[in-house]
Amino acid sequence: TQGLNVELRNGRGRCLVTTKPIQPGEIILTQEPYAFVMSLQTEVCNECGIEAQSLKRCAYCKHVRYCGVGCQRRAWKQTHSKECPLLKKIHEDGRVLPPTLHLTLQMLLKRHHQRASEEGKHVEIKPWDHYSLISLLETHRKELPQDRLLQFAQMATLLGSITPPECQANPEETTDILSSLSCNVHSICDAEVRPVGIGLYLVISLLVNHSCAPNAVLLFKGTTAVLRATAPIPAGAEIS
C-alpha cells in the first residue's frame, strides 16, 4: 500500500509506519481474510459476510449458507468443495465443529490448494495471502498454561481425524496454528459492531501492534477488514 512502510523498532518488533500524514477517518488499508468462518447464529452469508433475509443452505452439507449463487460458486472454488463432505460427515455424526477448529481446517485446506497451485502454476498467489506468513505469527506458546496447551493438543488430534490426508499437518504444527489463532484472530463485526464471525487477516495481525492509546480502529465491510484512522497520524508514526 502506498504511504506505508514496515520497520523494526526496539520494544515493538515489526511496525506498520506511515510515510505521510493521515487524517482522522481516512482509510489506511483494507484486507481480505486468509480464512474466515461466519457464525451460524446470525443471518449473514458465509462467503461475503453481508446480512441477507433469505439465505440458502448448501444442498449437500446443509451447514453453510449463502446469499446467492455467485457467493456459493466463489466459496466452492476456494475451500468449500473440500470442506463440504467433511462438514456433512460431522453433521451426520451429531457433532458440531467449533469455529476455531473450522477456521483451522480452512487454513489447512487453503495451504494445500496454494501448494498445489504453486507446483502446477495454476493461479497467482498474492505475497500477503501466502500460507508461509502463518509461521511468522506470534503464538505466545511459552506463556500458555499447560491445561491450555493440552486443550490445543486434543483439538489438533480431533482435527487430524477429519482432515484429508493430503491436507494434514502434524499435531505439533496444528498446535502452533491453534496457539497463534488464540492471539491473532479478529472478530468480524457488522455495521452495528455485533460479532458475526471470526477471521484471520495476515497483514493486520503481523504488522499492526496493540496500543493502549491507538490511533486507528479496525472495522469491517462484509468480510473485508478496513483499518481507519481515529486521530491525526504524522508521517513516521507507527499505526496501532
Q: Which helices and strands, and how do they pair?
A:
Blueprint: E1 4-9, E2 13-18, E3 27-31, E4 35-38, E5 56-57, E6 65-66, H1 69-92, H2 99-120, H3 146-162, H4 171-184, E7 186-189, E8 195-200, H5 202-207, E9 216-221, E10 224-229
Antiparallel strand pairs: 1-2, 3-10, 4-8, 5-6, 7-8, 9-10
Helix pairs in contact: 1-2, 3-4
Describe this protein with a few key phrases.
240 residues; alpha+beta; three-stranded antiparallel β-sheet; 5 helices
Oligomeric category? single chain
Structural class by sheet pairing and helices: alpha+beta
How many whole angstroms does the radius of gyration measure?
Answer: 19 Å
Strand order of the largest sheet: 3-10-9
State the share of residues found in helices, binned by percent: 25-40%
Shape call: globular
Reported for the largest beta sheet, the result is: 3 strands, antiparallel
- C-alpha termini separation: 16 Å
Q: Which band does the percent of strand residues land in? A: 15-25%
How many helix segments?
5
Overview of this protein structure:
The chain is an alpha+beta fold. Helix content is 35%, strand content 20%. It has a three-stranded antiparallel beta sheet with strand order 3-10-9, with no helix packed on it. It has a three-stranded antiparallel beta sheet with strand order 4-8-7, with helices on one face.
